[in-house]
Amino acid sequence: MTFKKGRNEPNINDVPSEFITDSLLEAYVKIGKGLWLDKVCKENGRDKLSILKRVIDSGIEHLDPVFGNHFSKEVADYAAFVYESKNQREWSSYVQKYKVKFERLGLNEYLF
To answer: What is the C-alpha separation between 60 and 57, in angstroms, rounded?
Structure first.
């Protein structure tokens, strides 16, 4: 609710450690934030990749904030595993949209 209804830019750094949960971090990524995800995960003993996998698992429509802000080989490989055969047309559109990022990491096997 803080992130979605805040008047100003939501800042995860304003959230006390006791309230940092995987679900909160997942919501933070889904709304297109994530600037501080690495820092908050390290400080709170959370695994960033597992948070990103949860976001990916929650629906292909959430790939934009993941690919846009947290693109990596591990993230691309996991998203491909989940969506490449199941949602081929939608997956193709994300691959084309983020083609430069795929190419930059040498993930040419995903390019058609």
So the answer is: 8
**Inter-CA distances, 74 with 12, 27, 68, Å:** 24, 20, 14
Arithmetic mean of pLDDT, 54-58: 97
* CA nearest to 61, candidates 15, 29, 99, 107: 29
| Burial grade of 94 (CB within 10 A; 0-12, 13-18, 19 or more) | buried
Cβ pair 62, 30 in contact under 8 A: yes
Q: Mean pLDDT of all residues in the chain?
A: 90
pTM, to two decimals? 0.88
Report DSSP state, residue 34. Answer: -
Asked if residues 33 and 74 have their Cβ atoms less than 8 Å apart, the reply is: no
